[in-house]
Amino acid sequence: DELRRASLSDHPHIQKAIIKRKPVLLNDTMKAHLTPAEKTVVESRKLRSLIYFPFVQEDRVLGVLILGNRNKSRKFTTHQRDLGQTVANQLSVAIQNTRLHADLKNNNENLERLVKQRTKELEKTNRVLRDMNLELIDKSHTVLKQKEELEASLENLKSVQLKLIQAERMASLGVLTAGVAHEINNPLNFIMGSYL
Questions:
Q1: How far apart are CA 164 and CA 172, in angstroms?
Q2: Exposure of 8 in the CB half-sphere (CA atoms within 13 A)
Q3: For the whole model, what pTM was predicted?
């Protein structure tokens, strides 16, 4: 684990590969200038030749692939360097795809959580609206019933009003008739009384 994570200040060859975004070659570690941290790695693994390949993805360096030869120095050919860089490029794509896949998975989980949360909110709102709708339907039935009752009362009042008007007319006619009869009867009674 100590060799997997290294401080860049202790490993200038890794730092150089990252900055230049190109492979860095050490054909012979015995002749190269190495920091104490680099010497520890070289000696523990008995490395004689090293090549550092940066994992470049778009504008970022994701890491560095370090390949080495043990016990004997070696000069890497152009083909070997190109092949190593191709492998590093493929690894950078794999790393990026893994990160994208993890991001996609997290985004899907977040989206599912948000959908569930929003669904619960909508179900609650739907229940409230359904209850309000039922209440409005009940009130609507009550209003319709009251309207029918009021219409029936209005018709009844109109009928009673017509009867009252008719009765009033009849009463007025009766009074008029009685007055006319009285006016006719008085002179008749006088005339009849004189003949008798």
A1: 12
A2: 8
A3: 0.56
